[in-house]
Write a structure and sequence with these properties.
Length: 366
């Protein structure tokens, strides 16, 4: 089997677990944070730099790559791995998140979603079949089912309709999938903030016996406390023999809390977005490197961090780069921030293996 998931250790006090997700382009040790590379690039970093962060799997986006440069060109280049120079596993989002994020530029019908391109105004028709075809052409290891992601504060009837449509679209995605041997199709559990919809959706998706499952529609406008409730209800219902992926989540607390509920994989744009705005993630805190307090601080950003940024440059130098709006500053902070979040999930992994999860990370669970 080219795809398999093995649980190596379970926490005796929570549902947290340690595992390995095997893919055609290598293993992913879980729990693991995954950097986002929407346009086949993690912003500001080369693949060689990205590899030093400890990242194992990265994300790219079907909708945006379809717009530019187009899946056909990427296929001609040898597929997305060859095109972007990343040798490890890659996951492509289906374009379903854009159903939420581009709500003013799209129209939802049963057949699919019509978008107006923000680039040139061109009309784009994205259906479950089209999304899967694009992802098959791109060639990522993991591809996502096309889904409807409703806003976090949508009413019950709206969310129920979106959840039911997501189920019907998953059936069509499965039928359209042409490369099941080398691309794992993940289904997405929707259901908004309504427990009964989440439970029903999770139970329905299990029947498809897919290689993996994701929880979507969180961190889209609902209160943070509801993310915890949603995951605590949903994650235990998903198969223990398959990887569980929480989409769009990547803060320290949210990852710790949801790992305790059995989640294995995470992605978020936070580390590079913060980096581009001069913000560093340091031992659970957010530091604005523009602040005057760093101007004459010649110590490393984090003396315990092994990243190139922390091992080479001072806080004063980073302050200088950020205040001067030098691109190097944004690159160095992004490099550190990704390393920090990957290391956070690695430390949790080690704590679970050593039966120290609650002892070392229990303060994040409150």
């Amino acid at each position: 089997m080219r795809f398999s998931f093995q649980t190596q250790k379970k926490c005796c006090q929570t549902l947290a677990r340690v595992g390995v997700w095997h893919t055609p382009h290598g293993p992913v040790e879980t729990p693991r944070f995954m950097p986002v590379g929407t346009l086949a690039t993690v912003k500001g970093l080369t693949p060689a730099q990205l590899q030093t962060t400890g990242a194992q799997m990265v994300l790219a986006n079907t909708y945006h790559l379809h717009l530019q440069p187009g899946e056909t060109l990427i296929e001609k280049a040898g597929g997305i791995h060859q095109f972007m120079g990343w040798k490890g596993p890659i996951l492509t989002d289906s374009g379903g998140f854009q159903v939420f994020s581009l709500s003013e530029l799209r129209h939802i019908r049963e057949i699919g979603v019509t978008f107006r391109s923000p680039r040139d105004g061109k009309i784009i028709e994205l259906t479950p079949e089209r999304s899967i075809h694009i992802q098959n052409t791109l060639g990522a290891d993991v591809i996502m089912a096309f889904d409807e992601c409703p806003p976090g504060k949508a009413d019950y009837s709206t969310v129920a309709a979106a959840t039911e449509r997501t189920y019907r679209w998953l059936e069509r995605c499965i039928d359209a999938h042409q490369r099941p041997q080398d691309q794992a199709l993940f289904g997405i559990v929707q259901g908004g903030i309504y427990p009964e919809l989440r439970i029903s959706a999770a139970k329905s998706l299990i029947d498809f016996d897919l290689p993996g499952y994701a929880i979507g529609g969180v961190s889209v406008g609902e209160e943070p406390a509801l993310i915890r409730e949603i995951v605590q209800i949903t994650a235990p219902l998903l198969p223990a023999t398959k990887p569980r992926y929480l989409m769009g989540v990547g803060t320290y607390r949210e990852m710790a809390i949801t790992i305790a509920s059995g989640i294995d994989l995470f992605d978020c744009v936070i580390p590079t977005r913060f980096g581009r705005h001069g913000t560093a993630l340091v031992r659970g805190e957010r530091w604005n490197l523009k602040n005057f307090q760093f101007r004459e601080d010649f110590g490393p950003l984090d003396a315990d961090c092994p990243c190139y940024t922390c091992q080479t440059f001072s806080r004063a130098y980073l302050n200088h780069l950020v205040r001067s709006q030098e691109m190097l500053g944004y690159t160095l902070l992004s490099l550190h921030n990704i390393t920090e979040l990957v290391r956070f999930t690695q430390r949790i992994r080690e704590a679970i293996l050593g039966d120290r999860f609650i002892e070392e990370f229990g303060h994040w669970l409150n």
